[in-house]
Automatic annotation (TrEMBL):
It comes from the Bacteria. One of its GO terms (cellular component) is cytoplasm. InterPro entries: FAD-dep_OxRdtase (IPR006076), FAD/NAD-bd_sf (IPR036188). Residues 8-363 form the FAD dependent oxidoreductase domain. This is Glycine/D-amino acid oxidase-like deaminating enzyme. GO terms for molecular function: oxidoreductase activity. Keywords: Oxidoreductase.
């Protein structure tokens, strides 16, 4: 570490991913400063529904990260300061249903079971027992007891509180402009508030990670994938699990730029029901698109007919940070020594944040990683194509 440094690591981005990395690093004794040009958790994290899912991932590296991260949330929540530890965590489980041919959902569940996921194929009658208000058109369901939910802004701010409690610092309203290098390695972060001397910089800029990477001399291909959510007025208990239509998995994994919608419905502790979700690659266009909201509403009523009579309170959207091969980007940048990335988590950053933080910490300290880091490395063709 350079002499006079004020941090071992400066984390750029106080979303859930930057917060989880900072929390894990400080838990291991690393001195951290977190900067964000906005308020903490004001980026994509503020748009997340808060699902912590294993149910929606194909077997492969992302599912392995999701399984590890689901367990890691338990460890992280257990070490949070008591005054902020209530992040509305609910181990509510997920229910995925098909209303057409049951074959593909059954086959998907079988693949996941083989990969170690607790995926229980259920009959329509069993699905109605779990979710009494579901459409009677269900042909098959799969129950995923491990799926959970939390409130993403509460979670990110709780993680940052732990960082502060351990002597780290969190600086909102500070724009990271570039890195300063000496002899080819990072010695500081240049910001709108002056330079912060440090031994390493972690790019956790979410959908803006490509821009910060380029400014730091190491462009990466991370793009925004727009999503919109409808929020109902608070209701008495009506949706007990995270419930979604079987075609959601296809939409998540698709690389299409065109609008895709699939029904995802869950209630929150406040009583509101969140209705998602859409996926579009339209850059950073944040206009409210009635066409998208109409399609979300129509499909949600198909899954839960009672929603047709429920008032919608508001709608909002955000930009999922998207790598072209649908895998997060986690690790050191081989082009600029001391520059690291933790980004590209697309629609799963809330769920995947704790294992990302743990992996960054393990790699940074030269410890044995708890999960194979290779699939997420920075120097893969899809990420460096920019
Ligand atoms: C509609 C919607 C629903 C979603 N639902 C879920 C869900 O249920 N479960 C789930 O796991 N995921 C979900 N996601 C995805 C999840 O929200 C993201 O993967 C996650 O929030 C990404 O977190 P992040 O910390 O990488 O990015 P962000 O939260 O965007 O944080 C990046 C931060 O970097 C800051 N920043 C950027 N550039 C700079 C700079 N140059 N200097 C200083 N600061 C900078 C920004 O201000 C921002 O605060 C959803 C996303 C959307 C859009």
């Amino acid at each position: 570490m350079p002499g006079g440094a004020t941090a071992d690591v400066v984390v750029v981005g106080a979303g859930i991913v930057g917060a989880a990395c900072a929390e894990a690093l400080t838990a291991a004794g690393v001195k951290v400063v977190v900067v964000d040009r906005g308020a903490a958790a004001s980026g994509t994290t503020a748009s997340g529904e808060g699902n912590v899912l294993v149910s929606d991932k194909e077997p492969g590296p992302e599912l392995e990260l999701a399984i590890a991260s689901r367990a890691e949330w338990g460890a992280v929540l257990a070490r949070l300061p008591e005054r902020v530890a209530d992040v509305e965590w609910e181990s509510k489980g997920g229910v995925v249903v098909a209303t057409t041919d049951p074959g593909p959902l059954k086959a998907f569940a079988a693949k996941q079971q083989a990969a170690g996921v607790d995926a229980r194929v259920i009959t329509p009658a069993e699905a109605f027992e779990l979710e009494p208000l579901l459409t009677r058109n269900v042909t098959i369901g799969v129950h995923y007891p491990a799926d959970a939910q939390l409130q993403p802004v509460l979670a990110a701010t709780a993680l940052l509180t732990a960082v502060r409690d351990r002597g780290g610092s969190v600086r909102p309203g500070v724009d990271a402009l570039s890195v300063r290098t000496a002899a080819g390695r990072v010695v500081g972060l240049e910001t709108s508030a002056g330079e912060i001397a440090c031994g390493a910089v972690l790019n956790a800029c979410g959908p803006w990670a490509g821009a910060f990477g380029a400014a730091a001399g190491a462009p990466i291909q991370v793009l925004p994938r727009r999503g919109m959510i409808l929020v109902t007025a608070p209701l008495p208990e009506c949706v007990r699990h995270k419930v979604y239509d079987a075609d959601y998995v296809g939409a998540v994994g698709s690389g299409d730029a065109d609008l895709q919608t699939s029904t995802v419905v869950e209630s929150t502790r406040a009583g509101t029901v969140l209705i998602g979700s859409s996926r579009e690659r339209i850059g950073f266009d944040d206009s409210v698109r009635v066409k998208v909201l109409r399609e979300l509403a129509r499909k949600a009523v198909g899954l839960f007919p009672f929603l047709g009579d429920v008032p919608v309170m508001r709608a909002y959207g955000g930009f999922r940070p998207y790598a072209p091969d649908h895998l997060p980007v986690i690790g050191p940048d081989p082009r600029v020594e001391g520059l690291w990335h933790a980004t590209g988590h697309e629609g799963a950053g809330i769920g995947l944040a704790p294992s990302t933080g743990r992996l960054i910490t393990e790699l940074f300290l030269g410890l044995t990683p708890h999960i194979a880091p290779d699939p997420f490395r920075v120097d893969r063709p899809a990420v460096l194509a920019a």
